[in-house]
Write a structure and sequence with these properties.
This protein is an alpha/beta fold. Helices cover about 40% and strands about 20% of the residues. The strands form three sheets. It has a five-stranded mixed sheet with strand order 4-1-5-12-6, with helices on both faces. The longest helix is centred in the first third of the chain and has 23 residues, at about 1-25. The protein is elongated, with a radius of gyration of 24 Å. The structure holds arginine. The site of arginine (ARG) has 15 residues, from strand 5.
């Protein structure tokens, strides 16, 4: 009998050990665990928004994606102890990908907005340089005197990137303009130059970059009224992932405390000014 008791004991111990081992290998319970289990953080972005995300045409593969947000994405991956994989897609596709859960995260120059806060987990603010302290309308330099106030755009075609803050601003502050939804910022620039649209709503810093490469364009003297909360940027994540949100916020706080943001923005500006910098339109 004693012999059997020992055997039963051994079997139980073994079963327990196996059970524990199985536990350790169990399915990841949330987005953060999944990222860690996969060893990869996949980040969607639309590289048509210099200096936040754009392409260095002298490089290829993952290395071609550069800009402030790319540096931030690398930092986050490092903080989570995983590799980074960037998936380039159009700006509205980035948001769809996060909302369907195809990717856990997108870092693409997102302003905080009420609608996004309802539909996504948004991180704490991170510094986006001077990029979005103002929101402007690009017009053709030849039209400088034609467009000087909001009403001048009444009945005119004004472009804004699909699913962007700029789209919201045009519909709220230029209600009588005819808003034209543009998939990619670069396409909007061409439409403006060719006379298909009269204005293109963009973030101020992004506008500066565009004008540097397109001297036939200028910023309209009239500017949008912008709420302070739209100025900084946020990381967009799939809704209801508190563990991932907390990890991202902790990393952002660490980057801020380390004084990295200013450095990253200066580097991004420098790269944006180099000859190999291009803004790429990704067709989905
Ligand atoms: N900040 C603006 C927004 O939140 C524009 C961002 C555009 N980003 C991009 N990668 N095209 O909508």
């Amino acid at each position: 009998m004693k012999k059997y008791a020992k055997l039963i004991c051994a079997v139980l111990v073994l079963a327990l050990a196996l059970g524990l081992a199985a536990c350790g290998k169990s399915e990841p319970k949330n987005a953060l665990e999944k990222i860690k289990a996969d060893g990869v953080l996949t980040v969607a972005l639309s590289p048509d928004f210099s200096p936040m995300e754009f392409v260095d045409s002298s490089k290829s593969g993952q290395d071609q994606y550069v800009g402030f947000d790319v540096t931030l994405a690398k930092y986050l991956a490092e903080e989570l102890g995983v590799k980074l994989e960037i998936q380039a897609m159009s700006f509205d596709a980035c948001q769809t990908a996060v909302s369907t859960g195809a990717v856990p995260m997108s870092i693409s120059g997102y302003s905080w907005t009420e609608t996004r806060a309802e539909n996504f987990d948004l991180s704490d603010y991170y510094y986006a340089g001077e990029n979005e302290t103002e929101q402007v309308i690009l017009i053709r330099a030849a039209d400088a005197d034609k467009y000087t106030k909001a009403e001048d755009f009444d009945g005119k075609d004004v472009g804004a990137q699909n699913a962007s803050l700029q789209m919201q601003l045009v519909s709220e502050q230029l209600p009588n303009a005819n808003m034209v939804t543009i998939g990619e910022i670069g396409v909007g620039v061409l439409e403006l130059q060719s006379g298909n649209i009269e204005g293109l709503a963009v973030a101020d810093g992004n506008g500066t970059q565009i004008i540097a490469n397109n001297p036939d364009l200028i910023k309209c003297s009239w500017k949008f009224d912008v709420k302070a909360e739209y100025e900084a940027n946020v990381v967009m994540m799939h809704k209801d992932e508190p563990e991932l949100l907390a990890a991202v916020n902790a990393a952002l706080a660490k980057a801020y405390d380390s004084g990295f943001y200013g450095e990253w923005y200066a580097d991004a500006l420098e790269l944006a000014a180099s000859a190999s910098a291009i803004e790429v339109s990704v067709e989905d």
